[in-house]
């Protein structure tokens, strides 16, 4: 804890002593109502104005501080905490009678409750000798393995709880990440005794997931805003969202369109066809888990086909930034070159 809550009837000198141990002091009156706050910088600026440090602190308390009401939504609280200056990383929460209820730390308020499942159990056969002794998600791009780059991408948007599905060379992954403490995240492992596909391993999650969660292949590189994807999923009330990337195929010949009588309708010279392809990133509601068979190979496209047959509300999210699937040696070398 780097803040303190104290009464407003103490001296400035006492506050200076407290600020040796705390980043910020919040003040309440005898009725437990929030009065204001002070940082070391606030007090030092007051001393420069020749204020006697033996005076009561109420003379210099910063009363113009940002706070939130306990009954405000999380979205409203986040809007307020984003307004905090650098030396105020703490948001007081009060009730409608101005009584102080608690202090929340900015990083804790922003932290997402949504889990992220990363698929890292594949063999990586298409990479040949490159993955002979190391699982594909642990191949280095720059000074970090792919899986760590993915985790960093989620951390940027305050996702901290991860499951990593492992099978091939699982010990390499576990030795690097352990429980996630060294990376300031929480990591648990889904141990596949046999390959279960990109959806099948979800049946092995033993804990109850109560919020929409991400599933992502462990060999994908993207700069996408994961918070934006989650918000899109929630806003559209999808049961499942599949992220897609644009893929173009240029046909190197003129393409002829004709009718049933072989009469030419049109000629398109070297046309480019565009497709939405599966980008290997998904958001699923916990209710979807009941459609995944236990201990059976089951891929994500099969799951989406099943959900579509059940007429559930599923959709796509078109990625807006770079995306690369490390599927072939050429993809790996391209990623290393561009890093």
From TrEMBL:
Which domain of life does the protein's organism represent? Bacteria
| Cross-referenced CDD domains | NTP_transferase_like_2
Molecular function via GO: nucleotidyltransferase activity
Alphabetical keyword list: Nucleotidyltransferase, Transferase
**Top-level enzyme category:** transferase
Q: What is its EC number?
A: 2.7.7.-
A Pfam family for this UniProt protein?
Answer: NTP_transferase
Gene3D superfamilies recorded for this chain?
Answer: CBS-domain, Spore Coat Polysaccharide Biosynthesis Protein SpsA, Chain A
Q: Where is the Nucleotidyl transferase domain?
A: 117-337
Q: What is this protein called?
A: Glucosamine-1-P guanylyltransferase
């Amino acid at each position: 804890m780097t803040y303190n809550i104290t009464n407003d009837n103490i001296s400035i000198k006492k506050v200076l002593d407290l600020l040796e141990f705390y980043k910020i002091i919040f003040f309440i009156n005898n009725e437990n109502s929030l009065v204001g706050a002070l940082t070391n910088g606030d007090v030092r600026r007051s001393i420069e104005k020749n204020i006697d440090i033996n005076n009561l602190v109420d003379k210099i308390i910063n009363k113009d501080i940002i706070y939130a009401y306990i009954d405000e939504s999380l979205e409203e609280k986040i809007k307020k905490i984003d307004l905090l200056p650098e030396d105020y990383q703490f948001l007081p929460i009060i009730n409608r009678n101005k009584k102080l209820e608690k202090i929340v730390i900015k990083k804790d308020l922003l932290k997402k409750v949504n889990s992220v499942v990363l698929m890292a159990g594949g063999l990586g056969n298409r990479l040949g000798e490159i993955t002979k002794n190391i699982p594909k998600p642990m191949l280095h791009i720059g000074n970090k393995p792919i899986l760590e780059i993915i985790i960093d991408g989620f951390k940027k948007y305050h996702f901290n709880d991860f499951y990593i599905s492992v099978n091939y060379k699982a010990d390499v992954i576990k030795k690097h990440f352990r429980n996630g403490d060294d990376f300031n995240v929480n990591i648990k492992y889904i141990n596949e005794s046999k390959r279960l596909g990109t959806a099948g391993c979800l049946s092995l999650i033993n804990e109850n997931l109560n919020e929409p969660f991400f599933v992502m292949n462990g060999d994908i590189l993207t700069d996408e805003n994961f918070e934006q994807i989650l918000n899109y999923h929630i806003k559209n009330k999808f049961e499942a969202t599949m992220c897609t990337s644009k893929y173009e195929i240029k046909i190197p010949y003129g393409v002829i369109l004709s009718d049933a009588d072989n009469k030419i309708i049109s000629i398109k010279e070297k046309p480019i066809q565009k497709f939405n392809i599966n980008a290997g990133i998904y958001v699923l509601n916990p209710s979807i888990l009941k459609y995944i068979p236990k201990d059976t190979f089951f891929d994500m496209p099969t799951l989406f086909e099943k959900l579509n047959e059940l007429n559930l509300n599923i959709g796509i999210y078109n990625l807006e930034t770079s995306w690369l699937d490390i599927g072939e040696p050429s993809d790996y070398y391209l990623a290393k070159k561009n890093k």
